[in-house]
Amino acid sequence: MNKALRLDPRTKFILLLGVNLLFLVSHSLLVEIILVSFSLGVILIDRKYKSALKYLIIFLVLLYIDRGLSVYLSGFYFTIINFIAYALRRFLPCLIVGKWILETTEVSDFVATMWKLKLPTSVIIPLSVVFRYFPTIKEEWNSIRSAMKIRGFRLSFEHVMVPLLFSAVMVSEELSAAALCRGLDNPGKHSSLIEIKMHGIDYLILGIFLIIVCLTCTLKGVGVIS
Asked: Is residue 23 within a helix (H) or strand (E), and if so which, with residue range?
């Protein structure tokens, strides 16, 4: 993660929550374009140029399938394809922001933020375990696939999922034990070497998003968008 452009984790989760809420409030294509543009702008600020280009191409392809091909094609199978393309396009801003948060937020930052928000221990421990869980499972998935290829086994569902399920159980137990060993269940006051503080870039991004929210509400109120 680029430390020069380090964003407060609270900013990231406010954006994720806000994008999801706007996604539920409006079904307008204009709002979709605004949200996708804003999401791409956020990851561009974090200098993820390749990811931004990839998401832009995906959005344009999905938009063309929904709005362009529907003029020339019809039928049951195209209806299914069109529905899938529409659903993926609608969820794309949420996926962009969510994946960006997972890639740029360290677990230590996440835990320090939860302590800063004074959340109860019963919430902090499960969330910290879950936050570490998915990257670990991804590593296990890659290790299992590599082991199967080395041994000459054909990659099939049961050859991958069965060891992955056993590994998932072990990983969850190990992560829970590691969280307790680090003293997360200690009822006393916790300290952290990580400073959780809002900076100018955080206020700028939140301000832009607030303008988008106000614009969406205004357009929806006057009936310009649905």
From this structure: helix 9-25
Reported as a single tens digit per residue, the pLDDT across 24-37 is 887 888 888 999 99
The amino acid present at 124, given as its one-letter code, is: I
Which of 221, 78, 98, 122 has its CA nearest to residue 213? 221
pLDDT at 3: 47
Number of Cβ within 10 Å of residue 12's Cβ equals 23
Angle, nearest 10°, between helix axes 9-25 and 107-116?
Answer: 80
Q: Are 216 and 25 in contact (CB under 8 A)?
A: yes
pLDDT digit string, tens, across residues 81-107: 888 888 888 889 999 998 898 888 887
Report d(CA 221, CA 225) in Å as an integer.
8
Query: The whole model's pTM is what?
Result: 0.74
State the DSSP string of 58-113: HHHHHHHHHHTGGGT--SHHHHHHHHHHHHHHHHHHHHHHHHHHHHH--HHHHHHH
Q: Which two tokens stand for residue 210?
A: 């607030």
Q: Which amino acid is at 146?
A: S
